[in-house]
């Protein structure tokens, strides 16, 4: 077996056993009866090493403040053999005079010999619960169940009506906006709601846009077909029909940023150590920064993206960037902090490490929704192109977007249809979290079929749930943008008559789940596509998908496919290393990863709440 080494600015470490797989994203497992894997540590500074082997409640000290010289390898070999099934770990502490104390944990799992071939990163155990098997640095399939309105498992609210409107003759935009503004001036109740603006059945012609910029407001119609409530975008101006937007997103608090002390925080982790936790309290909102420095860009070859043959100057090589995970502290134990949702990209000291900082978000609005209505955009039907005998409508001088969220938390769109928009239907932009988009249909799209268009359902926020959605005539029906921090979920969604793939679209989006999604899906290196999209997604999971699927393995990362039924899709830039393909051609249990995780976290009632 190859021995993956964690290299960093403080020390290098690896597990060593001839039967142990130490590839990123692959279960690190050994049969019961084998000796413990040796732990190799090479400090890059003079210092002291402590290491403890932990197996359940049992602890074996492997090294206690042992002196270590820079550049001199230390090999630790615990006595005994693996006797009990389960996950083991080495907790390593390194101290040097010139450095803050740092920590590293490495993992391995013991299982009976007869189970070894069945071990997967996650599977349904005999007791009907999910079993997670980490890789050697602790990366696991994340818990996606904290996505959606109020962190998942919560029934969307029924907000009382405060204003009712009938469809007027002529433009209705000013009338609807006045009703929204009237409700915005009302006091919020104890749950943060002001009230609903109810649009009675009819066609509401809107020449401009309507906006919700105050929390606690719901826009509701009386049906999603042409006989119900129709918001009709009129005129020849490109715009968004319904804008839901706060003034700003998360704003870091000055002088609260603290370094993370772990050399490696794995995917799926909800806790980590910091140099000092005195600034933080349970309930604090925090931004967890994962740096990606120049060395990281070089490692994943995104400083060497191929030039587009037809326009070489359009390809931009990547520059260092940060991922910012928006989280809430749930527990503090000494300098160990636990947060409400998992990290979905490793925080690694060799790529610059990470930090945690307090933030405020007074500029966000929350408790806002749109429900039970139809959106449609007028267009010029004389602007067409013909391809293979089929006429396509390609006018772009009309309302191109239906509903957008920006700087919003705890919002939703439910029970809706859309027709003839050219760009987006329901989009969660940056600065947003805990958004649910559910029970909707994109019936048709009108635009040129090219980049930047026809992406009806897109996620650029965090902890968002898109479920039970259908789409037609799109390019990227269900898509995530650049450097989007998961978890985000697309559940029970499908598309037909598509022109391109469902996908993370560009530049290292992390931690998404396509769960029971049908269509053509691609998680891959996109190289010079766009302006240099490159590795579009890392640590993505495709679960019981159908249709076509591409899953590639980025350097330093992994992507997983469980139970795909259908063909392997055409890769954009082969050859690339394949991701983890598990049970190709046959669905796996449970039927839905997200719903199983939600049930295990909150109980069966939580699953019923979101159905």
What is the strand and helix layout of this fold?
Elements: E1 11-16, E2 29-31, E3 38-43, E4 47-55, E5 58-68, E6 74-76, E7 86-95, E8 102-111, E9 122-124, E10 130-132, E11 161-165, H1 173-184, E12 195-199, E13 202-206, E14 210-212, E15 217-220, E16 229-233, E17 240-245, E18 251-252, E19 258-259, E20 264-265, E21 271-273, E22 285-292, H2 294-299, E23 321-333, E24 336-339, E25 347-348, E26 354-360, E27 365-377, E28 384-387, E29 390-393, E30 401-406, E31 408-421, E32 424-428, E33 433-445, E34 457-459, E35 464-472, E36 478-480, E37 485-496, E38 503-504, E39 509-523, E40 537-538, E41 541-543, E42 546-551, E43 560-562, E44 565-568, E45 580-582, H3 593-602, H4 604-609
Parallel strand pairs: 2-8, 11-12, 12-15, 13-16, 14-17, 15-27, 16-27, 17-30, 27-31, 30-32, 31-33, 32-34, 33-35, 34-36, 35-37, 36-38, 37-39, 39-40, 39-41, 39-42, 41-43, 42-44, 43-45
Antiparallel strand pairs: 1-3, 3-6, 4-5, 4-7, 7-8, 9-10, 18-26, 19-26, 20-25, 21-24, 22-23, 22-26, 23-24, 28-29
């Amino acid at each position: 077996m190859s021995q993956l080494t964690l290299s960093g600015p403080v020390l290098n470490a690896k597990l060593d056993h001839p039967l142990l797989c130490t590839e990123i994203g692959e279960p690190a497992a050994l049969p019961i009866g084998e000796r413990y894997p040796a732990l190799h540590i090479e400090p890059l500074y003079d210092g002291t090493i402590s290491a403890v082997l932990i197996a359940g409640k049992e602890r074996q000290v492997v090294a206690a403040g042992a002196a270590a010289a820079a550049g001199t390898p230390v090999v630790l070999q615990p006595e005994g053999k693996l006797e009990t099934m389960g996950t083991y770990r080495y907790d390593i502490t390194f101290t040097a005079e010139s450095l803050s104390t740092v920590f590293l944990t490495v993992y391995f799992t013991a299982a009976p010999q007869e189970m070894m071939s069945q071990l997967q990163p996650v599977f349904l155990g005999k007791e009907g619960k999910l079993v997670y098997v980490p890789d050697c640095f602790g990366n696991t399939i994340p818990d996606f169940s904290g996505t959606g309105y109020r962190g998942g498992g919560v029934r969307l609210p029924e907000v009382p009506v405060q204003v009712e409107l009938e469809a007027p003759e002529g433009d209705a935009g000013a009338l609807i906006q006045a009703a929204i503004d009237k409700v915005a001036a009302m006091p919020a109740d104890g749950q943060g709601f002001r009230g609903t603006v109810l649009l009675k059945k009819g066609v509401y012609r809107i020449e401009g846009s309507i906006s919700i910029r105050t929390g606690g407001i719901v826009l509701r119609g009386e049906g999603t077909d042409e006989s119900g409530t129709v918001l009709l975008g009129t005129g020849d101006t490109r715009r968004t029909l319904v804008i839901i937007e706060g003034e700003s997103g998360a704003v870091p608090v000055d002088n609260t940023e603290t370094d993370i002390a772990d050399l490696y925080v794995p995917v799926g982790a909800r806790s980590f150590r910091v140099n000092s936790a005195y600034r933080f309290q349970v309930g604090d909102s925090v931004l967890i920064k994962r740096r990606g420095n120049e060395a990281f860009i070089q490692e994943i070859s995104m400083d060497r993206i191929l030039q587009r043959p037809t326009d070489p100057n359009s390809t931009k090589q990547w520059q260092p960037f940060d991922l910012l995970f928006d989280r809430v502290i749930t527990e503090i134990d000494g300098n160990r902090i636990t947060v409400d949702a998992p990290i979905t990209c490793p925080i690694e000291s060799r790529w610059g490490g990470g930090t945690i900082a307090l933030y405020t978000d007074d500029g966000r609005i929350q408790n806002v929704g749109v429900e039970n209505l139809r959106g449609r955009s007028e267009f010029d039907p004389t602007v067409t192109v013909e391809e293979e005998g089929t006429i396509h409508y390609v006018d772009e001088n009309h309302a191109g977007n239906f509903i957008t969220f920006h700087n919003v938390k705890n919002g939703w769109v439910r029970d809706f249809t859309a027709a003839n928009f050219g760009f987006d239907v329901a989009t969660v932009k940056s600065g947003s979290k805990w958004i649910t988009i559910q029970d909707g249909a994109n019936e048709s799209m009108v635009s040129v079929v090219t980049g930047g268009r026809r992406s009806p359902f897109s996620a650029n926020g965090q902890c968002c749930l898109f479920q039970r959605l259908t789409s037609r005539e799109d390019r990227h029906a269900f898509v995530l943008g650049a450097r989007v921090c998961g978890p985000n979920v697309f559940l029970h969604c499908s598309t037909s008559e598509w022109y391109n793939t469902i996908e993370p679209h560009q530049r290292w989006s992390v931690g998404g789940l396509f769960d029971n999604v049908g269509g053509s899906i691609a998680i891959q290196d996109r190289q010079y596509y766009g302006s240099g999209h490159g590795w579009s997604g890392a640590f993505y999971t495709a679960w019981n998908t159908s249709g076509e699927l591409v899953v590639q393995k980025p350097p330093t990362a992994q992507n997983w496919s469980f139970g795909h039924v259908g063909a392997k899709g055409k890769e954009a830039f082969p050859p690339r290393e394949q991701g983890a393909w598990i049970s190709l051609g046959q669905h796996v249990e449970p039927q839905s990863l997200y719903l199983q995780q939600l049930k295990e976290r909150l109980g069966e009632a939580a699953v019923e709440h979101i159905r």
